[in-house]
Automatic annotation (TrEMBL):
<comment type="similarity">
    <text>Belongs to the ComF/GntX family.</text>
</comment>
<dbReference type="InterPro" id="IPR029057">
    <property type="entry name" value="PRTase-like"/>
</dbReference>
<dbReference type="InterPro" id="IPR051910">
    <property type="entry name" value="ComF/GntX_DNA_util-trans"/>
</dbReference>
<dbReference type="Pfam" id="PF00156">
    <property type="entry name" value="Pribosyltran"/>
</dbReference>
<feature type="domain" description="Phosphoribosyltransferase">
    <location>
        <begin position="140"/>
        <end position="217"/>
    </location>
</feature>
<protein>
    <submittedName>
        <fullName>ComF family protein</fullName>
    </submittedName>
</protein>
<dbReference type="InterPro" id="IPR000836">
    <property type="entry name" value="PRTase_dom"/>
</dbReference>
Amino acid sequence: MNAVRSYFNDFFSLIFPELCAACHVTLVSSEHVICTHCLYNLPYTNFHEQPDNIVAQQFWGKLPVAGAYALYYFNKGSNVQRMMHHFKYDGMHGIGNALGAIAGQQLNKSEVFKNVDYIIPVPLHNKRLRERGYNQSECFADGLASKMDATVLANNLVRTVSTKTQTRKSRFSRFENMQQVFAVKHPQQLQNKHVLLVDDIVTTGSTLEACGAELLKIPQLTLSIATIAYAV
């Protein structure tokens, strides 16, 4: 039976080959989502080894974060941008799970992130969630949780206002656009907990800053931040 199944899988792959989400080469049977070449050669930041990294610096004087991290550098026209486009707009939510697992393995090597209790994805408004069908940040969170001793908490931090895209806004406009957008439904659940707030890409950090500010209203909450990519 296994031989028959393998035969049909190989035959199906010949007709509908699975492509690497980053470089679009055909994946071999042992590869999943990302080819081996990209897996080793995408631009890793190694921010888990650098406490004062660029992402952490974005929140200095704004949010007291215990740790800040991004898995990859993001440049326009790069394989990371191509991969993130597929993830965010083409329904390829498995990319988030795969990258979350890679990031989770890295974060387990850091003393700062080892004691995370909850992983909280930046929420989408219900309207946007219905349009897209999934929250890309939650997919990343699920992948992280598969490698970390932490629980994904997806329905406590909520987005109460549907905002327009941030892509073409200035830093100040992004910050202004995020004010009074998020709320915590059950703050007592997060008291005395270490929370890892996660998103797909950090650019100005305004969305993460707004979410983090809301979370830090909770007594004795420790906040860390992780994203898939940092926009250079």
